[in-house]
Amino acid sequence: MILESKVATPAERILNLAAYLKEKLPSGVSIDDITANVKGYDPEQSRDQQGRLTGEGPEWETLRRKVRRDLEDLTTEWGIESEYDESNRLYRLLPPFFNLEERQALIVAASMIRIDGIDGVDGQIGTGVNDLEADMVVQVHPLVATLRDAMVDHQKVEFLYEETLRTLEPWALGKWRNSWYVAGWEPKNEAFRRYRLDRISGTISRIKPVEAFVVQDWFNSELAFDLDPNSWGHDPLLIARVEVDQDFGPSFISEFQGEVTSKLDEIWEVEFKVRHYQSTLVRLLAFREHARIVSPPPLQSLVQDHLFAVIEKTT
Amino acid sequence: MSRLTKDQQFEVLRTVLGMVEEQDSVSLSECSTVTGIDKETLRDTLGIALFVDYRDSSGNLISESDVFLLDENEMISITARKSHWLRDLAASPPDRDSALRLLIAGQAMQAIASNPTPDLDSAVAKLRAEVAIELRLPAEIPPSLTTVRQALAQQVSIKVQYLHDDSEATVARELLPFQVWSRWGHWYLSARDIKEKATKTFRVDRMIRTELGTTKVFPPPQLEIPESFDLKDRSVKVRVAINEDDLGYLPTTAQLGVKTDLGDGRVELDVVVNGDQQINHLLLSLPAEAKVLSPNGYAKLRRELVGDLLVKLS
Question: Which CATH architecture has domain B6-88?
Answer without folding.
Answer: Orthogonal Bundle (1.10)
